[in-house]
Amino acid sequence: MGKNNFKWFVAAAVAAVLIIPVYLFKPSGQLNTEKLRAAVVAGFMQPFSDMSAEFERETGIRIEVTYSSAGKLYSQVINGAPYEIVLLDEERAGRLFKEGYAENPFVYAKGEVVLWTVRKEFCGNADWRDAVTQKDLKKIGIANPEIAVYGMSAKKALQSSGLWKSVEPRLIQSPDLAQVFQYATTEAVDAGFCNLFQAYSEKGGKGCFYRMPEAPPVIHSACLIKNSAGREAVLKFAAYLVSPEAEKIKNKYGYK
Predict the structure, then answer these.
(1) Is 39 left (phi over 0), alpha (psi -120 to 50) or beta?
(2) Third-level CATH fold of 32-110+218-252
(3) Domain 113-211 part of CATH 3.30.540.10
(4) 3-class DSSP state for residue 71?
(5) Which end of the chain has the lower number of beta carbons within 10 A, N or C?
(6) Which residue ranges of the chain lie beneath pLDDT 50?
């Protein structure tokens, strides 16, 4: 090898040593163009937003999410909506599995219904039953029990307490839990049947809430849609949903 050729070889070798590791150790998120499409019940909006942001930072996989009531999302799936994963309630996720649209569901969180109000005059009652029977509580928000799991849980609590018939005329139905909380925070209703994470939020801290032991816990279940695209990405996210990192976020918002 001639002297000039040897110098060129050494220079090229040094450049390779310096450049190649930069490429190899470049964060995967900068190179990853994967994405997945998720459908999520509106009541789980804030925790999911935090979790999806963390997941994207760690993997580079983007998540396109649609929020709505469990009933509407179920209808979208059976009518061919192109989701890879859906986060619903236990009953509807089970139906998607039995009907052949999805794989076997798994539990990712457990939620709790509470009665929440921003109006301080309703904050001194003994429990939620005393609060909900106050004559000045003229409008009470509830997610439509026919399509929203938290609304159904609240309805069952009212029924088991013998209060459904007396309270029903004052109920203002909304399509999902997010709208119930919005109505309650803006005083479009005097109080609302919300979930515990909303009561723990910054806006929730401006009011008060009553726990409702009579309300059945809401079991959140997820399932992977059969024959969907992005199989590797959705499997990674399914594993993340039940990881210790995701559990920390869910616990922060009052989910078990």
Answers:
(1) beta
(2) D-Maltodextrin-Binding Protein; domain 2 (3.40.190)
(3) no
(4) helix
(5) N
(6) 1-31
